[in-house]
C-alpha cells in the first residue's frame, strides 16, 4: 500500500506554510533549512536607522544605479581608480563619475515671473500677428481694457462681434490656457498699473527713451499731453450735467466732498475754493468719517465724490449710503461705465476716450484739477458774483501770510 503524499494548501509554496505571527512552520518529516549568518565584528552594534533614513538611502542608491547602469555598483578594489568602475551587467563599459558640489537650484518660478510680460504688453506684442476675429477681440480689449475687465466671455464676444470660440482662440494665441486665466491676468495687470500710470506717464517715458530726445523732449511731451487732456475734457463735457452740478453746488445747504488716494488732494483744493465763495462745504478721505458725515446729511444736501477709476470701494459705499438716505449724489470720474456711475445722479467725465487709456490716467489728475477750478469759478458767479468778500479774504490772507519787513532781524 502506497503512502499518501501530503501537499501544502493552495496559495502557499512548498513547505512555506506560515503561522499567525508570520514565521515559517516546518512541515512534518522535513528538516529545517538553516541559513548561514555572517558573524558580526567584535564590538559592533547595529545602529537603528532614523525615521525615513532607510527610504532616503534606498532612493539615493536607486538613483546611483540608474545613473551608472543597471545592477548594483561594485565597490572599487585596491587597484581600481576611484573615479572609474564597471557596471554589473556591462563589465566592458566604463563610467566616469565626478563629484560636483551640491549647489541649490535656481528658483525658476521667480525668474519666470519677473521676466514674464504683463497681459497688456503680451497683447500689444501679439497684435500684429492676429487677424480676423482674433484681431477684432484684441482691438476691443486694447480700446478699453477697463470695460472688458470683469466681463464674461459672452459679453466680450458681443462687444467684439465674434463668437465665443473666437474669444477662446484669442486667449490661446496669447499663451493662456483659457478665458478665465486671461481675465484674471488682465484684472491683475490693471490693478497693478492703476497707481503707476496715474502717478507716472509710462508711455511718454518709453517714447522719449526710444527717440533719445533728452529731458526737454520729455517735458514737452508731458505738457502736450496735459493740454490735450484738458481740450478733450472740455470738448466732451456734458453741458446739461455741468449746469446742474453748478446750480446744486451754489444752492445746497451742505456739500460733502469725498475722495481717497490721489483724489484726496483734489477734494482738499476744491473744498478751499468753494469755501472761499461762501459754500458750506466739508471734505474727508477717511472711510469711517465718510459714513459719519453722510449720516448727518438730509435730503436737499449734496455729496460730490471724486474717483478716477470709479471703483474706489469706500467712495462707492458712501455714495450708496447717501442715496439710501435720499441725498443727491454727483461724481467726477474718468470711467463713466464704472460702478460710481450707477450710484450717482449726475457724473462728469474728466477725459475723453480719444486719448489712450495709459497716458490719460496721468493727465486725468491735471485735467480734473483744471475742471474743478473752473467749476468753482462758475459757482461763484451762480451765487451772485460779488467780489467784495473775496477781496476781504485776500487782504486777510496777505496780512497773515506775508513776512514782515524786519523778518531777517527776528531770531
Automatic annotation (TrEMBL):
Pfam families the record matches: HTH_6, SIS
The record's keywords, sorted A to Z, are: DNA-binding, Transcription, Transcription regulation
Specify where the region named Disordered lies, as residue ranges: 1-117, 383-411
Biased composition range(s): Basic residues: 15-48, 61-77
- Do you know which InterPro entries this protein is assigned to? Homeodomain-like_sf, HTH_RpiR, RpiR-like, RpiR-like_SIS, SIS_dom, SIS_dom_sf, WH-like_DNA-bd_sf
The UniProt record lists the SIS domain at: 245-385
One GO molecular-function annotation for this sequence?
DNA binding
- Tell me where in this chain the HTH rpiR-type domain is found: 117-193
Output the GO biological process annotations, alphabetical, semicolon-separated: carbohydrate derivative metabolic process
Instruction: Write down what this protein is called.
Output: MurR/RpiR family transcriptional regulator
- Give the organism's phylogenetic lineage: Bacteria, Bacillati, Actinomycetota, Actinomycetes, Jiangellales
Amino acid at each position: 500500500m502506497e503512502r499518501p503524499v501530503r501537499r501544502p494548501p493552495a496559495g502557499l509554496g512548498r513547505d512555506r506554510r506560515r503561522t499567525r505571527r508570520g514565521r515559517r512552520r516546518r512541515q512534518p518529516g522535513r528538516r529545517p533549512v538553516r541559513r548561514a549568518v555572517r558573524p558580526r565584528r567584535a564590538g559592533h552594534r547595529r545602529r537603528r536607522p532614523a525615521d525615513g533614513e532607510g527610504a532616503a538611502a534606498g532612493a539615493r542608491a536607486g538613483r546611483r544605479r540608474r545613473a551608472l547602469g543597471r545592477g548594483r555598483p561594485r565597490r572599487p578594489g585596491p587597484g581600481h581608480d576611484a573615479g572609474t568602475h564597471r557596471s554589473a551587467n556591462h563589465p566592458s563599459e566604463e563610467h566616469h563619475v565626478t563629484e560636483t558640489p551640491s549647489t541649490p537650484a535656481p528658483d525658476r518660478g521667480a525668474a519666470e515671473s519677473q521676466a514674464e510680460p504683463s497681459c497688456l504688453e503680451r497683447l500689444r506684442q501679439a497684435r500684429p500677428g492676429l487677424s480676423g476675429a482674433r484681431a477684432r477681440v484684441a482691438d476691443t480689449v486694447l480700446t478699453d481694457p477697463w470695460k472688458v475687465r470683469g466681463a464674461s466671455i459672452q459679453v466680450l464676444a458681443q462687444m467684439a462681434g465674434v463668437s465665443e470660440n473666437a474669444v477662446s482662440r484669442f486667449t490661446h494665441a496669447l499663451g493662456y490656457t483659457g478665458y478665465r486665466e486671461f481675465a484674471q491676468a488682465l484684472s491683475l495687470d490693471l490693478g497693478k498699473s492703476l497707481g503707476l500710470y496715474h502717478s507716472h506717464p509710462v508711455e511718454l517715458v518709453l517714447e522719449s527713451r526710444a527717440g533719445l530726445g533728452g529731458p526737454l523732449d520729455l517735458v514737452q511731451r508731458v505738457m502736450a499731453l496735459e493740454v490735450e487732456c484738458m481740450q478733450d475734457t472740455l470738448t466732451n463735457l456734458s453741458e446739461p450735467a455741468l449746469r446742474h452740478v453748478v446750480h446744486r453746488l451754489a444752492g445746497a445747504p451742505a456739500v460733502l466732498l469725498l475722495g481717497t488716494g490721489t483724489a484726496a488732494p483734489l477734494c482738499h483744493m476744491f473744498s478751499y475754493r468753494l469755501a472761499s465763495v461762501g459754500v458750506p462745504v466739508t471734505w474727508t478721505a477717511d472711510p469711517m468719517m465718510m459714513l459719519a458725515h453722510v449720516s448727518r446729511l438730509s435730503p436737499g444736501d449734496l455729496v460730490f465724490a471724486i474717483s478716477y477709476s470709479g471703483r474706489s470701494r469706500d467712495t462707492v459705499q458712501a455714495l450708496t449710503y447717501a442715496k439710501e438716505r435720499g441725498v443727491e449724489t454727483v461724481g467726477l470720474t474718468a470711467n463713466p461705465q464704472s460702478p460710481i456711475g450707477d450710484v450717482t445722479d449726475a457724473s462728469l467725465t474728466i477725459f475723453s476716450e480719444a486719448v489712450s487709456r495709459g497716458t490719460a490716467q496721468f493727465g486725468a489728475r491735471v485735467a480734473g484739477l483744471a475742471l474743478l477750478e473752473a467749476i468753482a469759478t462758475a459757482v461763484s458767479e451762480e451765487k451772485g458774483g460779488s467780489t467784495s468778500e473775496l477781496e476781504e479774504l485776500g487782504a486777510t490772507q496777505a496780512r497773515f501770510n506775508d513776512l514782515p519787513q524786519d523778518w531777517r532781524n527776528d531770531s
